[in-house]
Every structure is written in structure tokens, then in C-alpha cells.
Amino acid sequence: MFFFALGPLNLSKEGLWEISWGEYEDLLLSWQYREYLEYRKTAALATWVLNGTGKRNHPVLIDDLIGVWDDGEIMSKQEHFDRSVQKIKNRKQKGGDDNGTG
Questions:
Q1: Tens digit of pLDDT at every position of the chain (102 positions)
Q2: How far apart are CA 80 and CA 86, in angstroms?
């Protein structure tokens, strides 16, 4: 944790001990999301190359290459779909309202 906090999170040694675990987790999650967005940029370039060749039967999408960000996790499109269906089923079983608060 120490070297990770000093490296990618850009915390100083003093700053590391001045933040709480919750703040550390928030910084970690935001760093992971920034990295995901960088991967999306790279994947966009890859899709342009792959789709530009004209040799594919179907277009390659960015989400096919790197997945979908949902609730702090990167997952495949199928996993995201299955999770969304499960959330809807759970919400219906609990008798939740339409705004998604359950």
C-alpha cells in the first residue's frame, strides 16, 4: 500500500498518514477510473484500426475490448447485462420504486 500511495496516487509520506482509509479508498477508486478512461482511449484507436481494415464481419466496439465500468468494477458486456437483469429482479422482488432507490 505504501509504495502504491506514493506512486500512482501522488501522496507524500506525510500526506499518506493524514488521510483516512475511506479517503484512501476514494483516491484509489478515482485512480482506477482514470486508468480505465485511458484504456478506453487506447481501445478507441484499436477499434479504428480493426474496423478500418474492412476485413471484419462485424464492427469491434470499445466495450468488446476492455469491458464496461460498473460500480467500481470492469466487467464484460455480458456480465454487465446479467448484473443489470439481477438488479432489476431484486428491485421488483423488494417492491422498489421507479427511481432505483429500492
A1: 555 566 677 777 677 778 787 888 888 888 889 999 999 999 999 999 999 888 888 899 999 999 999 888 889 989 999 999 999 999 988 875 556 554
A2: 10
Place of cell 476514494: 26
Q: Parse the chain into domains and list their residue ranges.
A: 1-56, 67-102
Whole-number Å distance between alpha carbons of 61 and 36: 15
Contact 76, 84 (CB under 8 A): no
| d(C-alpha 46, C-alpha 65), whole Å | 9
Q: Exposure string (b/e) for 58-86, b if CB count within 10 Å is 16 or more?
A: eeeebbeebbbbeeeebbeeeebeeeeee
Give the DSSP H or E segment for 33: helix 21-52
CA distances from 33 to 48, 70, 90, 101 (A): 23, 10, 27, 24
